[in-house]
Amino acid sequence: MSKIESIRSNQAKLYKQYRALIEQAYNFRQTDSAISDISEYKAIKLLNKLNKLKYLVREQSQSAQ
C-alpha cells in the first residue's frame, strides 16, 4: 500500500467519525448542550486532522508528477 493510499484510507475513516460527531452534536443540541459542545469540539479536532491529511495528499501527488 502506497503512502497516498494509506493516507486516503485514514481520511475516509476520520471523515466517517467526523460525520457521526457532527450528527451527534446536532441531535443533542436541544436536550444536552454540554454533550453537543463536546461532540462539536471533537469534530473540529478531526476536521483539523483531515485538513492536514488533505495537504499531505496534495503534496505527495504533486511530488509524484
Brief characterization of the structure:
With 65 residues, this protein is an all-alpha fold.
Task: Give the helices and strands, then pairings.
Layout (H helix, E strand, L loop, with lengths): L2 H26 L4 H32 L1
Helix pairs in contact: 1-2
Label this structure with key terms:
65 residues; mainly alpha; 2 helices
Average of the residue pLDDT scores: 90
- N to C succession of SSEs: HH
Sketch the major β-sheet: none
| Strand fraction | under 5%
Alpha-beta content class: mainly alpha
How much helical structure, as a percent, in the residues? over 70%
Q: Tally of extended strands? A: 0
Tell me the count of domains: 1
Instruction: Give the termini separation.
Output: 18 Å
Describe the structure.
With 65 residues, the protein is an all-alpha fold. It has one domain (11-59). Helices cover 89% and strands 0% of the residues. It contains 2 helices and no strands. The protein has helices spanning 3-28, 33-64. α1 (3-28) packs antiparallel against α2 (33-64). 5% of the residues are buried.
